[in-house]
Amino acid sequence: MCRTLIFKYEHCYGFRIIEGELPPDLASVMKRLWADPGVQECFMRSREFQLNDSAPYYLNSLERIAQPNYIPTQDDVLRTRVKTTGIVETHFTYKDLHFKYGIVSPFSFDHWSLNAALRMFDVGGQRSERKKWIHCFEGVTAIIFCVAMSEYDMVLAEDDEMNRMIESMKLFDSICNNKWFTETSIILFLNKKDLFEEKIKRSPLTRCFPEYTGE
């Protein structure tokens, strides 16, 4: 049986993940708290603080997650988030082609080696992580640049004056014009469309693009 993860608050140290079950009484309290009008109002203003965008998904699924026989679904797994730091390489095979996947998170650098094995590196987009990119530049054949459409009204965690979408646009421009990538294929991938469609109903696009006059 798969066990759920409980987030335990450590005074002055934030949250720490520990393994264990989610007791029904705790799940009930969390459900009531999540249903509180004040908390819902706070969530509607979540762009003003650094809230994980998968939080409402898990909070709306508390009853299912708290079941004794709970087994994570594919969505449960895909919506988890762990901040990427350092370089981690894993291997996997797809259609008889052996892949080496290295995590060093919004870019992916693809390398083709002499034995036709593909090496993919997922590099952290945070400013503090960018200095590590230089280690992935040599021999890059393709770059997948991922941008979260839903972050048009949010600011960076490391700079509360910089809009995330504007930062991504500047970063994309610098990558496209980098001398290292003159022969490299660059793919722009816009994700989190579902979150964008929900957010645009309550948060205007003019927060990021004041000149926008559409509906």
TrEMBL record:
Annotated binding of GTP, by residue: 53-54, 78-84, 122-126, 191-194
Residue ranges of coiled coil: none
Keyword set, alphabetical order: GTP-binding, Lipoprotein, Magnesium, Metal-binding, Myristate, Nucleotide-binding, Palmitate, Transducer
UniProt cross-references to SMART domains, sorted A to Z: G_alpha
Ranges annotated as spanning the membrane: none
SUPFAM superfamilies assigned: P-loop containing nucleoside triphosphate hydrolases, Transducin (alpha subunit), insertion domain
InterPro entries with a match to the protein in the record: Gprotein_alpha_su, GproteinA_insert, P-loop_NTPase
Entry GO CC: cytoplasm; heterotrimeric G-protein complex
A single GO molecular function term of this UniProt record: GTP binding
GO BP, sorted A to Z: adenylate cyclase-modulating G protein-coupled receptor signaling pathway
Residues that bind Mg(2+): 84
Protein name as catalogued: G-protein alpha subunit
Native source species: Oesophagostomum dentatum (Nodular worm)
